[in-house]
Design goal:
Helix content: 40-55%
Shape: globular
Number of strands: 10
Length: about 325
């Protein structure tokens, strides 16, 4: 907790100087998820607060097609004037490392602005499932007939898809991937028995666990999350189990002026440092506050994120289907 406060304090200090770069009258924030999805809800919440902080209108534009690729392409091709931004830079990176040409250069055609939170994926089964813990589920996966267990995710190339693929590959098992149009649908498929298990983002699964609609057996976080201290991590469970998280971040088209980037980043810092209720809600849903102290810090971390996701694709064997 002290580290989080220190990060927020340092970011706030760096954000204080007056920034003269003019903002566009309105900003279109392209969200690569369907309306009503948990990530869309979070994007709308934060964009509303960011609009107040910046003094401009921010309009959310949902583009969930092709697993978010259309959203990333739209931002990569936009003018670098700050009028078009992308929610979740990880979406752009994922499509760049999945094996097919996404139509952009992920290191050249985007300007990292701010990363402020990460959420792990959680493995959920229905309450009546025969597997009481992750060891039992993995044993069932190893002994399953051809095709293995059926597992759901919010789409091809999502952190949920890669988490399941990495887990099964680590134990030498197979499974049948059933991609859905978002984490909400994947979680519902668990509840109805359409799939044996699913990975989905923590802020979707935790409320369903609290309502006894699903049971959580595993987390992809770096450490056990406070809301579920009894649930082990993927890193604890399988050899070389990777840490897999979904980022809440904002990026723009390549070539944005540094002063403009700094001004938008300062708005994000203001929102995250002053809104205690928002930070607590993110952490309550299994999230970790990762606010960068400056846009240059996020930009410096961008190549490392690309390399990490590329390794994860290699480890998981996940591919566009």
């Amino acid at each position: 907790m002290r580290r989080r406060h220190a990060l927020l304090g340092a970011a706030a200090l760096l954000a204080r100087p007056a920034l003269a770069q003019d903002l566009p009258r309105s900003i279109r924030l392209i969200v690569p998820f369907a309306p009503g999805a948990s990530t869309d809800t979070l994007a709308r919440l934060i964009s509303g607060k960011l609009a107040e902080a910046l003094g401009v209108a921010i309009v959310v534009d949902n583009r969930a097609g092709a697993g978010g690729l259309l959203a990333a392409q739209a931002v990569a091709r936009a003018a670098p004037d700050g009028a078009t931004l992308l929610w979740s830079g990880g979406t752009a990176i994922t499509h760049a490392v999945m094996g097919n040409d996404p139509g952009y250069d992920v290191t050249r055609d985007f300007t990292p602005i701010s990363s402020f939170a990460e959420n792990p994926a959680l493995l959920a089964v229905r309450p009546a499932a025969p597997w009481r813990d992750i060891a039992a589920l993995l044993a069932a996966a190893r002994s399953a007939p051809a095709g293995g267990l059926r597992y759901g995710s919010g789409g091809v190339g999502t952190v949920a898809h890669m988490a399941a693929a990495a887990m099964l590959k680590a134990i030498g098992a197979e499974g049948t991937h059933v991609p859905y149009r978002g984490a909400n649908q994947a979680t519902l498929a668990v509840e109805t028995g359409e799939v044996d298990f699913a990975f989905a983002i923590s802020n979707i699964v935790l409320p369903r666990q609290q309502q006894d609609a699903v049971r959580v057996l595993l987390s992809t976080a770096a450490r056990r999350i406070p809301a579920l201290p009894e649930v082990p991590t993927l890193a604890e469970t399988v050899p070389d189990g990777p840490v897999i998280v979904s980022d809440s971040s904002i990026v723009g088209p390549g070539g944005m002026p540094p002063a403009l980037v700094a001004r938008i980043h300062a708005g994000v810092v203001k929102v995250m440092s002053e809104d205690t209720a928002l930070r607590e809600a993110l952490q309550r849903d299994g999230g970790d506050i990762t606010l960068d102290p400056s846009p240059t810090a996020y930009a410096a971390a961008w190549p490392g994120q690309v390399a990490r996701l590329r390794r994860l694709v290699q480890v998981s064997g996940a591919r566009v289907e």
